[in-house]
Amino acid sequence: MIILLRHGETEWNVERRFQGQKDSPLTERGRSQAAAMAALVRDLVAREPYAAWRLVSSPLGRARDTAEVVAAATGFALETDDRLAEINCGEWEGRTWAEVSAGREASSRHWIFDAPGGETHDDVQARIEDFLANLPPEPERRVVVVSHGAAGRVMRGAYVGLTREAMLDLDVPQDAVFRLQNGQVDRFDCAPAE
To answer: How many CB atoms lie within 10 A of CB 148?
Structure first.
């Protein structure tokens, strides 16, 4: 089983800036979201009382800050893994969606993988699939993963074998936790953070 969550809201999320592998701090709302997700994770792992769990986070600050809240709630030691980092958005990192989307279909998620100097979908999928392949097999697998929007989409999609198009249509909430188990993905929503 994998319990997957995205980091809480950041200042750049509010400003609609591409973060990629750059960082901005969690907002107050983001810290509340992290606490709500951590409580939900604690409840989910309590259903598996004899399992040995790992907590693995992207090394990027926003994910690591969220994972530290999960660690405090669960008592799990925190590890980081570069393969869980968000997509590198190259020259777009720090720029707003409005600046980058000029002349593009604003609702499309496909062009995020076209950033000059950034990673492609295949790049992100290869490192996420490598991470998944190096986990113990089910049912022994017990890992909590804290990652990002695009990387989390790719992980959920790769886990259930979705097409690239279907992966990009997955939502990326900051107030929900996903359980990947037995070839399916289940969503658990937290109370909305103010």
So the answer is: 24
Sheet holding 78-80, edge to edge: 78-80, 54-57, 143-147, 2-6, 176-181, 184-189
Q: What is the set of domains in the chain, with CATH numbers? A: 2-189 (3.40.50.1240)
Show the beta-strand stretches assigned E in the chain. 2-6, 54-57, 78-80, 143-147, 176-181, 184-189
Quick check: is 7 catalytic? Answer: yes
Q: Please identify which residue in the block is written with the tokens 């909590």.
A: 144
0.70 exceeded by pTM:
yes
Active site residue 99: no
**pLDDT tens across 141-190, in order?**
999 999 999 999 999 999 999 999 999 899 999 999 999 999 999 999 99
> Which residue out of 9, 86, 93, 119 is catalytically annotated?
86
7, 93, 121, 148: the catalytic one is 7
**What dihedral angle (degrees, nearest 10) is formed by the CA atoms of 41, 46, 51, 56?**
20
Residue 80 CA to residue 56 CA, distance in Å, equals 5
Six-digit token pair at 186? 């289940």
Interhelix angle 121-133/149-160, rounded to 10 degrees, is 60
| Structure tokens given for 121 | 């979908």
